TrEMBL record:
Keywords, comma-separated and alphabetical: Hydrolase
Name this protein carries in UniProt: Alpha/beta hydrolase
Lineage: Bacteria, Bacillati, Bacillota, Clostridia, Lachnospirales
Hydrolase as UniProt keyword: yes
Alphabetical list of InterPro entries matching this protein: AB_hydrolase_fold, Hydrolase_4, MAG_DAG_Lipase
GO MF: hydrolase activity
Key word Hydrolase present: yes
Length: 333
């Protein structure tokens, strides 16, 4: 495990994790639901007791989750990381590297289904001599926007994953003091005006500057690590996502309405990890999911900001302890 203490983080990443990534992580592409190429990363553990599929959040990319993936692997799991369309090295529907765009969140859902069907599941069964072998237990780990996608996926395809971890899931958006009617009216206005691949008002291109205080991270060292990967010249703007198109914003509101309708159908074990100081997503929506799904467990981290995995010390120690205690119940002994 990467040390939880902030002062030990960077040296460990430099001397242990980065060399490990070069030795153990492969990347590749597969055709998404519409044939466009989606990028992925995988670390296959030869002694795996289960498989974790990871979905990142809005404007996320692989480098932001190096620590998480490494810790999952070290705890005995094979890990598969999907860079969602519009992010990282995956297909981009618009020309701006800073803009995240999608027509409907079901595109993300079907890309995940394609990922499982063409990469993840075949990886587990191709070398088996048993004709009825279905592979190791499959688990889903999803952060923020990934949590919204994960919930939609689990509602549509309930029999693939054995359990899921939803970290600060975007079951609803925290609009602060802005009333919902005003949000919906603005969304309708952008549609009537034909604003599809224009930025949501108030958002724009990546300016290359760090904004730690406004970010979802509470550990400066962890924030700086991923920020350096965002601006690294060798990544050629692949990680500079910064804002959403009006089309994406409307799609996100539809996705939230849709997932609410299907929540009662969820029966699989769910672990909801809630950040007490979350300024991005609505914690009340997470509470409702916990109350409506009998198989859901909610653990709150009172001092954490939105990116709980970018905390430090006792908060981060508790985060991983809770996750592994949950997953190990359903993993192979």
């Amino acid at each position: 495990m990467v040390p939880f203490e902030a002062e030990k983080f960077e040296p460990y990443m430099k001397t242990v994790v980065r060399p490990w990534l070069q030795r153990h992580v492969e990347d590749g592409q597969f055709p998404g639901w519409d044939g466009n190429l989606i990028h992925f990363y995988r670390a296959k553990n030869p002694s795996a007791k289960g498989i974790i599929v990871m979905l990142h959040g809005f404007c996320g990319f692989f480098g932001k989750y190096h620590e998480v993936l490494y810790n999952f692997y070290e705890e005995g799991y094979s890990v598969y990381f999907l860079e969602l369309r519009g992010h990282g090295l995956s297909y981009r529907p618009v020309s701006s590297p800073s803009m995240v765009d999608v027509g409907d969140f079901d595109e993300y859902v079907e890309d995940l289904k394609s990922f499982l069907d063409t990469i993840v599941i075949p990886d587990q069964t191709e070398n088996s001599e048993l004709p009825d072998y279905t592979g190791l237990p499959l688990f889903l780990y999803a952060h923020s926007m990934g949590g919204c996608i994960a919930t939609l996926f689990l509602e549509k395809y309930p029999d693939i994953f054995q359990a899921a971890v939803l970290s600060s899931p975007m079951l609803d958006i925290n609009f602060g003091s802005t009333p919902r009617w005003k949000v919906n009216l603005t969304a309708l206005g952008t549609k009537l005006l034909g604003w599809n691949d224009r930025y949501v008002p108030g958002q724009g291109d990546f300016d290359g500057k760090p904004y730690f205080e406004e970010s979802g991270a509470s550990c400066r060292e962890r924030y700086d690590y991923s920020f350096r990967l965002r601006i690294a010249p060798e990544n050629q703007d692949a990680n500079t996502m910064n804002g959403s198109s009006c089309r994406w914003a409307r799609a996100s509101l539809r996705a939230i309405r849709r997932l609410r309708k299907g929540i009662s159908s969820l029966t699989m074990p769910l672990l909801i990890l809630q950040a007490g100081k979350d300024a991005y997503v609505d914690n009340q929506a997470e509470n409702r999911l916990r109350n409506e799904v009998k198989s859901a467990l909610l653990i709150r981290f009172p001092e954490a900001k939105h990116e709980i995995f970018n905390s430090e010390g006792k908060t981060l120690e508790k985060y991983y302890k809770v996750i592994f205690r949950f997953l190990d119940q359903y993993a192979e002994a």
